[in-house]
């Protein structure tokens, strides 16, 4: 652990790191958002016949998001590291693996609760990080706050509808993919040079 050094400019370190990696991160967010939105649309349009294919696509997308969260945590400056990213990344990876290996019957019963827990962690992490950015007067944290609130609202919806049919699960999964993709696209659009 690195101790706080009052002579070191932690905010400038974060700004320099952000400005160097912003375009790469923004491009990755747009690509992930597009994949999630396409998977969500396919899930909504072909709820029964394409469920297995979309289940694997969604699993791959969620695993990629989980890996990206862990990489983001590892690349953050030490003073701004958020351990919720590691938890969120691990949960995303576990959810993706479960989507790969679980049969449809078990998926229907379990996936709603897992998605709700995942969304709560993601929403809390985004809200906490946006709050930290506002504390240090770093601008443009509104889309991050919006994304966190959106994740928590969707988690509440998932918790209120724990037992649904396989068809309804497709639409819940489609909503999750579409909203997560939209949130990533909003975050990417809000990424500016600081």
Can you give a write-up of this model?
The protein is mostly helical and 194 residues long. It has one domain. 80% of the residues lie in helices and 0% in strands. It contains six helices and no strands. Helix 2 runs antiparallel to helix 3, helix 4 runs parallel beside helix 6 and helix 5 packs antiparallel against helix 6. The model has no long low-confidence stretch (mean pLDDT 80).
Please report the total strand number as a whole number.
0
Structural shape? elongated
In percent, how much strand structure appears in the residues? Answer: under 5%
- Write the element-wise H/E pattern from the N-terminal end onward: HHHHHH
Gyration radius, in Å: 17 Å
Ranges with pLDDT <50 over ≥5 residues? none
Number of domains: 1
User: How many H/I helical runs?
Assistant: 6
- Which class best fits the helix and strand makeup? mainly alpha
How much helicity do the residues have?
over 70%
Termini separation: 27 Å
Characterize the main sheet.
Answer: none
Mean pLDDT: 80
Task: Give a quick rundown of the structure.
This is DUF308 domain-containing protein. The chain is an all-alpha fold and 194 residues long. 80% of the residues lie in helices and 0% in strands.
Write the layout of secondary structure elements.
Layout: H1 10-45, H2 51-75, H3 84-101, H4 104-135, H5 142-160, H6 166-190
Helix pairs in contact: 1-2, 1-6, 2-3, 3-4, 4-5, 4-6, 5-6
Keywords: Membrane, Transmembrane, Transmembrane helix
Organism: Candidatus Mediterraneibacter stercoravium
Protein name: DUF308 domain-containing protein
